[in-house]
């Protein structure tokens, strides 16, 4: 039986809810996948600690696939992240007050890692299902990218049999009620999106070839 580990962060930046955790915890509880074991774990929005918590979750669950999910306030679609960069450059403090600026995540690691999820296959399935989706070329330089890079570095150095990557999701409507013109997406739609991502990640060892590049 294939095992999939989903992670979502706790609230940060003054928010009282994080859609990432709300979504992955519901996917975990629904358990609607035939011949799949899906586990969800909450990750603290804290530099360094987040990677250690993820490592312990991987050791506990022993997954075949890891999908980390994070909030991207201001984005309007499901964003499949393509590349994690070796950089911490925090515009705001994390949940323990850490605010690293222009620091590498790993002194010995490469400048970047590619995702090992079939992100173009996932994007195509999401769009076919009527869910807005895109490939993203940057996961930022806050804790989301930090965890994404940490995951890919662990896959490269500790857990070579695992495939993994990162998905950003929009705000929930409750978060944007007092933020005019800021996009959001319903919880039900985002749960469906992550379920689609889980299934596609298990079914596709190789990604499809499709044009998803950007001009700038």
UniProtKB/TrEMBL annotation:
What's its top-level EC category?
hydrolase
Q: Which NCBIfam families match?
A: PRK13197.1, pyro_pdase
User: What is the source species?
Assistant: Paenibacillus lignilyticus
Q: What family does this chain come from, according to its entry?
A: Belongs to the peptidase C15 family.
Question: Gene3D superfamilies, per this entry?
Answer: Peptidase C15, pyroglutamyl peptidase I-like
Summarize the protein's role: Removes 5-oxoproline from various penultimate amino acid residues except L-proline.
Principal location class: cytoplasm
Spell out the reaction equation it catalyses: Release of an N-terminal pyroglutamyl group from a polypeptide, the second amino acid generally not being Pro
Q: Which UniProt keywords apply?
A: Cytoplasm, Hydrolase, Protease, Thiol protease
Give any GO molecular function from the UniProt entry: pyroglutamyl-peptidase activity
Which EC numbers does the record give?
A: 3.4.19.3
Top-rank taxon of the source lineage equals Bacteria
Q: What positions does UniProt annotate as the active site of this protein? A: 81, 144, 168
Give the classification, highest ranks. Bacteria, Bacillati, Bacillota, Bacilli, Bacillales
Its gene name is pcp
Question: Where would you find this protein in the cell?
Answer: Cytoplasm
Could you identify this protein by its name?
Answer: Pyrrolidone-carboxylate peptidase
How is the quaternary structure described?
Homotetramer.
């Amino acid at each position: 039986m294939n095992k999939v580990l989903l992670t979502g962060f706790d609230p940060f930046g003054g928010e009282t809810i994080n859609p990432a955790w709300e979504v992955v915890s519901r996917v975990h509880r629904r358990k609607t996948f035939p011949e799949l074991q899906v586990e969800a774990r909450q990750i603290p929005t804290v530099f360094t600690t987040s990677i250690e918590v993820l490592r312990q979750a991987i050791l506990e669950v022993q997954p075949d696939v890891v999908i980390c999910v994070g909030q991207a306030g201001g984005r309007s679609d499901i964003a499949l992240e393509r590349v994690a960069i070796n950089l911490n450059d925090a515009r705001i403090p994390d949940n323990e007050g850490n605010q690293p600026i222009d620091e590498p995540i790993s002194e010995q690691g490469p400048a970047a890692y590619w995702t090992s999820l079939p992100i173009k296959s996932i994007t195509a399935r999401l769009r076919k299902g009527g869910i807005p989706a895109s490939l993203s070329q940057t996961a930022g330089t806050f804790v989301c990218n930090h965890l994404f890079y940490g995951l890919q570095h662990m896959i490269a150095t500790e857990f070579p049999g695992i495939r993994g990557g990162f998905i950003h999701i929009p705000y929930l409507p409750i978060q944007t009620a007092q933020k005019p013109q800021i996009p959001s997406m319903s919880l039900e739609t985002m749960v469906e999106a992550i379920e689609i991502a889980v299934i596609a990640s298990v079914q596709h060892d190789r990604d499809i070839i499709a044009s998803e590049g950007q001009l700038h």
